[in-house]
Amino acid sequence: QVQLVQSGGGLVHSGGSLRLSCAASKRTSAYYYMTWFRQAPGKEREFVASIAWTANTTDYADSVKGRFFVSADKTKTTVYLQMNSLEPEDTALYYCAASPWLPGSYFHIPTLYNAWGQGTQVTVSS
């Protein structure tokens, strides 16, 4: 099973930017989606953004569209989440996760993922 190691995150003022990284221990065709989720205190884990390795297509939650950007490096072993115009509502623990291909928008569902990063805190102050 692939291991995912996250880096980045931290504390930033409202309107600032941060970049998260997620490095996979190996490239494997078994994983189709690399996805970022987040979980704020007292809330459920929610979909943020995803990139499909092979198709190189991306998808975003409405709440981050136009502010966050997901990308992968050329080796397709590291995924990035560039977060711009951060808002206090973006404060959460952010996770990257990997999953095989899923139909429709099932890749938005965190329980369908079987490989997870360790999580990294993002705190946005007002």
> What portion of residues is helical?
under 10%
Approximately how much beta-strand content do the residues carry?
Answer: over 45%
Largest sheet: 7 strands, mixed
Counting H and I runs of at least 4 residues, what is the number of helices? 0
Number of DSSP strands? 11
What structural class should be given to the helix and strand makeup?
Answer: mainly beta
Distance between the ends: 40 Å
What's the mean pLDDT score?
94
What pattern of helices and strands is seen along the backbone?
Answer: EEEEEEEEEEE
Uncertain runs with pLDDT below 50, 5 residues or more?
A: none
- Rg over alpha carbons: 13 Å
3D shape: globular
What does this entry look like structurally?
The chain is mostly beta strands and 126 residues long. 0% of the residues lie in helices and 48% in strands. It contains no helices and eleven strands. Strands 2, 4, 5, 6, 9, 10 and 11 form a seven-stranded mixed beta sheet that branches. A four-stranded antiparallel beta sheet has the order 1-3-8-7, with no helix packed on it. The radius of gyration is 13 Å and the shape is globular.
Question: Which helices and strands occur, and which strands form pairs?
Answer:
Blueprint: E1 4-8, E2 10-13, E3 18-24, E4 33-39, E5 46-52, E6 58-60, E7 68-72, E8 78-83, E9 92-99, E10 115-116, E11 120-125
Summarize the structure.
This protein is mainly beta. The protein has strands at residues 4-8, 10-13, 18-24, 33-39, 46-52, 58-60, 68-72, 78-83, 92-99, 115-116, 120-125.
Give structural attributes:
126 residues, mainly beta, globular
